[in-house]
């Protein structure tokens, strides 16, 4: 039923198995008579997280190299995300130390799977993965645009601010996913989603765009085989699987989908 992609230049992997804040910075005070500054717990945690994220960034950009301009946009995006994370849960707190590898590089790898795509639609953008990352990567390309569809108002507000501070070509749509896809104006080269819904539901959301010639790239976890089996009950599809460069996940590529009668 499916074909496996190369997943970059990584060797083929085993068959997947089922299953799948920055704290507020404080001033560093010096106690009377102390030889060196005493660092509060909050400041120490921030300082440690800064160091960890910096090292993670180096690893991520080896997996998914970008131009200096794109890197600077991504730096501004990460700084904004960490500032907002304290009041709005944009990513799982446990993933903050791996913001670059787990979220940024994971999103950037989609560009290599659709190198000619300039017009993207990201369904359920959440904290901006992959939508804002793709918009940062598309900045400067004539005719580039990324539609970010998000149903939660606080997250949509964050996405708008992220697009603004990164000066990236993105348009945020505050709407239910299924209600908004038909309203996206202009052609779309590629539609994507990450951690949004089971595959058979994603195909239903994306089908109007696929019908118009878009390619779908859906980021999925280790349970991709079970999701493909379930999706085949509802859709005639010929998926291609690409192993993620950043973990045990998979990317499902679809060029067409026809609902079973």
Automatic annotation (TrEMBL):
It is an enzyme of class 2 (transferase). Residues 1-41 are annotated as: Disordered. PANTHER family: S-ADENOSYL-L-METHIONINE-DEPENDENT METHYLTRANSFERASES SUPERFAMILY PROTEIN. Specifically methylates the N7 position of guanine in position 527 of 16S rRNA. Gene3D superfamilies: Vaccinia Virus protein VP39. This is Ribosomal RNA small subunit methyltransferase G. Belongs to the methyltransferase superfamily. RNA methyltransferase RsmG family. It is found in: Cytoplasm. Keywords: Cytoplasm, Methyltransferase, rRNA processing, S-adenosyl-L-methionine, Transferase. Pfam families: GidB (PF02527). S-adenosyl-L-methionine binds at residues 124, 129, 194. It catalyses: guanosine(527) in 16S rRNA + S-adenosyl-L-methionine = N(7)-methylguanosine(527) in 16S rRNA + S-adenosyl-L-homocysteine. Its EC number is 2.1.1.170. SUPFAM superfamilies: S-adenosyl-L-methionine-dependent methyltransferases (SSF53335).
